[in-house]
Large ribosomal subunit protein bL34 (Aminomonas paucivorans DSM 12260), 74 residues
Amino acid sequence: MPRFGGLCYSIKAFPKGSMRVTTSKREVSPVKRTYQPHNVPRKRSMGFLERSASPSGRNILRNRRRKGRKRLAV
């Protein structure tokens, strides 16, 4: 631990566990991740029936089958 002018610094920039403390409510909340989709709109645009309805969607399903994906669509 480095000493500067009699003071001992041991504060970590990123504490263990990636938690943040909100100053207004004084509670600990986990850091949210970026992609948190709503399931129904996502299934309407990326679901199996939507993929199989268009030629490009069928192409996507064929490529995913060929690659061996367990999940073909959302």
Residues 55-67 form the longest helix (13 residues). The mean pLDDT is 79.
